[in-house]
Amino acid sequence: MATTRLISMHKNKGKSVADCISDRIDYALNPDKTNEGKYVSSYECDPKTVKGEFILSKKIYANITGREQVNDVILYQIRQSFKPGEISPELANKIGYELALKFTKGNHAFFVATHIDKSHIHNHIIYNSTSLDCTRKFRDFLGSGKAVGKISDRLCLENGLSIIENPKRGKNHYGKWLGDKKPITHSQDLRNTIDEILSKKPTNFDDFLFQMEEAGYSIKQGKHLAFKNKQQKRFIRLRSLGEGYLEEEIKEIIKGKMPYSNRKQVASKQQSPVNLLVDIQSKLQAEKGEGYQRWAKIFNLKQMAQTINFLTENNLLVYEDLEKKAQLSTDNFNEISDQIKNIENRMKEIGNLKTHIISYSKTRDIYTAYRKSGYSKKYYEKHTADLILHKAAKAAFDELDTKKIPTVKALQKEYTELISEKRKVYTKYHSIKKEMKNILTAKANVDRLLGGDSVEKEKEKSQKQR
To answer: Which intervals hold domain MobA/VirD2-like nuclease (predicted)?
Structure first.
């Protein structure tokens, strides 16, 4: 079990960036906390020189981009704490490294320092806010902390560790504070209106549009059909509403070629997801009361029933089949994740190559003049920036596998195809991810019910019978 927290590390007032970086890194790499540096790993940096490397990257960023640091975020830290007695320092460091690599997508240098000075083993994962190519900064996004937690939970499940059941936010969480008073979005309001009109079975698409106007919506026709009511400032395109709301899909439903299903009813009939069982004994040791114990027993009974239903529906009643399915689903998820990463890397390569081609084209005459001047120092000083861009473009071309430099048009075409391919893969990604999560959770419940020793004995027994 691991708790996670993503922390922005700011520049302190009255201190330089170098001093702040040094203070934060010195604490994380404290030899007394990491067994003399034994439990420290790193990616694209050396723990011995990491302070200088991070500081240098920020200076290179300023030189390349010409941008001054607007905010005072210099580093980011992921703090990952594990349940006492559940994990070894070596495994904790390995999981921390995988977490950092997946979250940063390999675009930022980082190190993982596993501290063992407390009763609970915990990781200090510090990554540079500046990217490896020194051209971008990491931008914290809405839900980034939740994303870190999801990756951490998946890694814990893959390594046979428990995760927190039903994590709760603080009492001032905005979504909880709003509760049932949260206003419906314009997009959801439009979906509801479309569902209501389709349930009335309009005779044709023109009749559908007429009923939409009667419902108070203005219609914008063109390449993408869009609607707007009196409360909206902008039109909402059908394609932004998700599956089942495209113009072609609505036409197919009206013609009867595609079945119409009441989405509200479908949502209510969907089975609740398989959740992890509560470890009642550990909760009682944490001074939870008898009321909690009664609730936990009922909760566990419901979840085991849900788990058994899931295993029965998927024909996974033999433990070995469940184990194989868990491994297969994890492998499938890793494979499609690698596929997405390869597509994104290629898109990044195309973007960089397009930049170099444009830079080369713009600076070619300047370089020609520089060469004709006999590589004059005075000329170089006057056109330093353009000549550096030209040299970088030439170096990028030399690294290409082919001697022929592709055109910008050809690269743009490939880029568009990759975007389309990425969208298709992402559709599979979400379904495979959901399947893996359900199977791993069901397996964790079965393991907890049988107990680790019972599972091993069952496997040994089946092997002997063979």
So the answer is: 27-161
Instruction: Please check whether residue 234 is in contact with residue 228, taking contact to mean a CB–CB distance below 8 angstroms.
Output: yes
Closest CA to 394 of 415, 435, 366, 375: 366
The CA distances from residue 127 to 63, 95, 112, 338, 465, in Å, are 21, 15, 9, 22, 51
Distance, in Å, from the CA atom of 144 to the CA atom of 207, rounded to the nearest integer, reads 44
pLDDT digits (tens, 9 = 90+) for 145-171: 889 998 998 888 788 777 776 565 554
pLDDT at res. 93: 94
47-75 per-position pLDDT tens digit: 988 988 898 888 888 888 777 665 678 89
Please provide the size of the chain in residues. 466
